[in-house]
Automatic annotation (TrEMBL):
Protein name: Glyoxylate/hydroxypyruvate reductase A
UniProt keyword list: NAD, Oxidoreductase, Pyruvate
Molecular function per GO: NAD binding; oxidoreductase activity, acting on the CH-OH group of donors, NAD or NADP as acceptor
InterPro entries noted in UniProt: D-isomer_DH_CS, D-isomer_DH_NAD-bd, NAD(P)-bd_dom_sf
Occurrences of domain D-isomer specific 2-hydroxyacid dehydrogenase NAD-binding (ranges): 107-278
Pfam families: 2-Hacid_dh_C
Record carries keyword Transport: no
Organism of this sequence: Paraburkholderia lacunae
Length: 313
């Protein structure tokens, strides 16, 4: 069995070493430009088109992340790029769910306890008490109730704020009021104080964080975008902050990554930026999951986490 590996900026030698330990019979190699030699599986993150185009020998492509938008964009831009019969399999949790829960609860609590405002008061050397936000109306709405969104919604609910969740199909999650489908979108948004985005980036969800969406939230609401930059209409965020409809935002993802040095977001004190780190791909957990699925596919078994290309996630 031949396996190609491609992950820019990663320590490829360590990944290949770890895969070789759990798949001792595999011939593993790091893909280099021009390599068209046969392969059965590809393990990738943001692969270049040349790596996958015309590789009809591939049985599966394993994406070293939860979101497959970058790979599907290759197909969208030039149909026929993805190998015809290869399954596209994404990571499921592999330690990302607890990281995402830490990141989002940290941001929600920071806003609920007004630590962002206390930080600004400290910068101005002002000793001033602010009124507490009432917990019972500090409603948190989570867009996307998949592997990560469901875990995050439950983690936030443990702090006693009302939590709502929104998905494509109906979901039931203890402690979370759930909404499904476009017909329930406005009811989900109505009066939400913190909007958390954990949707996949698909043709249906791009630009979902826009002026209309913000207008349905409680006045002075907060935005936490930990999914993809393409979900956010950046100008609408700046205008919502200027008008007071939004009080602040935490962005782990932006349209152009890295965020250019002259981008307005760097200069807006109510925007907190992190460099796409809310849930990192962890090597040990990811190697174990991918290797287990390759072994299952080799035995002719089915695996979970297979992407529905038409749906986009
Ligand atoms: P997932 O398990 O596929 O869950 C996706 C959720 O979104 C599902 O609940 C799905 O609804 C819902 N959804 C999809 N399209 C929808 C639509 N048009 N309307 C309403 N709901 C829709 O994905 P995941 O593993 O939780 O990951 C979510 C995303 O997080 C990834 O795609 C990635 O972009 C992002 N992410 C970011 C980082 C980071 O470091 N910033 C790390 C990991 C992942 P159903 O339940 O009905 O299918
Ligand atoms: C990271 O952004 C991922 O999709 O895993």
């Amino acid at each position: 069995m031949k396996i190609l590996f491609y992950m820019p900026h990663a320590d490829a030698a360590s990944w290949l070493y770890d895969f070789a330990r759990v798949l001792p019979d595999a011939e593993l190699r790091e893909w280099q430009a021009g390599d068209t030699a046969p392969a059965d599986f590809a393990i990738v993150w943001r692969p270049p088109r040349d790596m996958l185009a015309g590789r009809d020998d591939l049985r599966a492509i394993f994406n070293l992340g939860a979101g497959v938008d970058a790979i599907l964009a290759l197909e969208h831009e030039r149909p026929g790029t993805l190998p015809r019969n290869a399954k596209l399999v994404r990571l499921e949790d592999t330690g990302m769910a607890p990281q995402m829960a830490e990141y989002v609860t940290h941001a929600v609590l920071r806003y609920m306890r007004r630590f962002d405002e206390y930080q600004m008061l400290q910068s101005a050397r002002r000793w001033q008490e602010l009124e507490a936000h009432p917990r019972e109306t500090f409603t948190v709405g989570v867009l996307g109730l998949g592997v990560l969104g469901a875990h995050v919604a439950q983690a936030v609910a443990a702090f006693g704020m009302p939590v709502r969740g929104y998905s494509r199909s109906a979901r039931q999650i203890d402690g979370v009021t759930t909404f499904a489908g476009e017909a329930q979108f406005d009811a989900f948004l109505d009066g939400v104080k913190v909007l958390v985005n954990l949707l996949p980036h698909t043709p249906d969800t791009g630009d979902v964080l826009n002026a209309r969406t913000f207008s349905k939230l409680a006045r002075g609401a907060y935005l936490i975008n930990v999914a993809r930059g393409g979900h956010l209409v950046e100008q609408d965020l700046l205008e919502a902050l200027a008008s007071g409809q939004l009080a602040a935002a935490t962005l782990d993802v932006v349209r152009e990554e890295p965020l250019p040095p002259d981008h307005l977001f760097w200069r807006e004190p109510r925007i907190t930026i992190t460099p796409h780190i809310s849930a990192l791909t962890l090597r040990e957990e990811s190697v174990a999951q991918v290797a287990q699925k390759i072994t299952a596919l080799m035995r002719g078994e089915t695996v979970s986490g297979v992407v529905d290309i038409g749906r986009g996630y």
